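Here's what a typical entry looks like (Threonine transporter):
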Amino acid sequence: MGHLKPAADPFDSPLETGLRALVVLEAMHPRACDLTEMTWYDHLVVNTADIEGGDGTEGPESLHPPLPGRHDGLTVRRNVVEESLLLMHRVHLVDVRHEKDGIRYAASDDAPSFLDALQAPYTVRLKDRARWLAEIFAGMSAAEIAAVVDRHVGLWAVQFRSGEDERP
């Protein structure tokens, strides 16, 4: 399962990414998500202005600035997202489920009380955006979510894994 490497900078470290992943998984509860979905959500939850709501309106203001090339990060974020999910699993905040269609991640029973304690303004805004994403994707299949990501971020970002039919 790999080892976590110490991060020289906490920005986008497995800890920061893990907290974002945990916020997203709690908002998505009871849905369990695979690594590909979690990589998309890691990008979308901080870049909400890049996607529109279910009613066609603009998403909430992004938490991160709209830097050129920000979508390029999806191709390299997968490993950090995986490391972050394993870190959150080690501290019993994320459940890892081995299902017939692959490995899926879900917020553990301990996640809500942990997240309730996090009340910094950035974290509150992050939780709001994660709930907004969860509302948009509620009831959608992975293929439907991929189509939304393709429409707003680009097909190359949807197909960043090695095989089209391969599960993480």
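Strands lie at 94-99, 102-107.

More examples are in the samples folder.
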